[in-house]
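Schema walk-through. Below, the input block comes first and the output block second. Nothing else is stored per chain. Lengths vary across the set, and this one has 148 residues.
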Amino acid sequence: MPTRPAVPRKKPVLLALLLLGFALWITGICVSIAHEPPEGSPSADTLRTDLTEAVRDRDADRLQNLFAPDTVGDDYAETLLPRLTDAGVTNPPATRQAAADGDFLHLKIHPKATAPDGRPTCLTWQVTQADDRWYADGVLPLTPPACP
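--- output ---
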């Protein structure tokens, strides 16, 4: 009976390595998604603090995550931070103000930018809540309360 030549075992080993690599890649993606910080903040007061720190630290990713989904574009924070720097905003405390139509966060753009009457100018966002998380609404209010 004729003997067959030995078949190299490279193909099963290569296939096993490819499957292992694919499984590790998928695992890495799942772990990175699971460890991504949640958007928004756990409370309205924490949102105020988080907004202040994100602007102070010039952390565009963190700032972007504080805005309600679908209210700002993907590059909003990356565009906003340099403009705040140009306006002289370096370490502004965000303030939270309750008004008849909801809570608002004010970010003072001071001292370079002032209103015609000399009052400081603010960026104002309404505070919203969804799924036990608090967000700044990126759509600027049409009639914001006065900057404190």
